[in-house]
Amino acid sequence: MLTIRAMSDGKGYSARYLEQRDYYAEGERVLGRWQGCGAELLGLSGEVVGIRANKIVARSAKGEEREFAQILFSPNGDLLYFFTSDDVLVYETQHLKQVDRWELSRTLFEEGIGRLNFFFPNDIYEERGFYTGLFRATDPVNRRTMMGVARVDLVNRSVDFFTLGPSEPVSFTLAPGRKRAYGIRREIGNYQFWTFDLESRRVVRKVEFKGRPRMGLSASSNGKLLYVHTAGPTIDLYDTENFQHVGTVDLGQDMSDFVLIPPRAATPMRTAEHPR
User: Fold this and answer.
1) N or C: which end of the chain has fewer CB within 10 A?
2) 136 in Cβ contact with 144 (< 8 Å)
3) Residue 186 C-alpha from the chain's centroid
4) Distance between CA atoms of 254 and 236, rounded to whole angstroms?
């Protein structure tokens, strides 16, 4: 029988054992080498540089250090897109050979606005091959950081976007139907729900609520509820019409992530979106 429980001191364990007394260590130094097709595809080879703040730091074949790399697949799975700081390397997935290169920095550059800093978010309500989210850009003349919403067509390599105004610490998550999106503005003492109207291309509502310093946000598959989760042991449910708190699910242990699995279209909504 397998028993699973939360670690009582995960951070301390990592600091005490994984960084200096792990069984991979030699002379109090953690050793590791990059191997396999995946490492070759990412341009990683040789020795792992080290661990910083519990993160593995890799050095690519070009001498660049990376703690993170984004990889996406095309809708039919025949292409793999590997994102670098300036462009996207395109590989066919059968033999992992590079077949193209997308100069993303040019696609995401707008005259008078500058480079659109955009991360390709995966969202269960988005059409396959499309990615919608917030971007930030620094005005090259006035040096002001602006924000807006962009929708990128990965296959056709095109982007549609609109600006909203000065950048603010707000998140973004699509609602079913992709006509609206919601976000949480996180500032201690001033937590707000935001409603983005993607058809009229503007923020239509901001409502204060009692939040917490670290929060994730997801919309229910019927569009009637918002789930506020991570970090902590609870999931708070809010009505999207008036942003009133309608319930709390207590999981009993801290969560590091939240995965929403919508029910099948023919199946009535039930337990999948309401963890017990």
Assistant:
1) N
2) no
3) 16
4) 14
Number of domains in the chain: 1
First to last CA, the chain: 23
Write out the two tokens for 78: 């025949």
- Cβ-proximal residues to 116 (8 Å cutoff; 6+ apart), any chain: 108, 109, 110, 135, 136, 137, 148, 150, 159, 161
* Burial of 109 from C-beta contacts in 10 A (0-12 / 13-18 / 19+): middle
Q: Which pair of structure tokens corresponds to residue 260?
A: 């929403």
Residue 161 belongs to a domain: no
79 within some domain: no
Q: Which residues of the chain have pLDDT under 50?
A: 1-4, 13, 17-26, 51-56, 58-62, 266-276
Q: Are the beta carbons of 27 and 41 closer than 8 angstroms?
A: no
Contact criterion met (CB below 8 Å) for 216 and 196: no
Range(s) of the domain holding residue 18 = 9-69
Residue 76 within any structural domain of the chain? no
Contacts 24+ apart (CB under 8 A), 91-95: 91/41
115 part of a folded domain? no
Per DSSP, 25 falls in state B
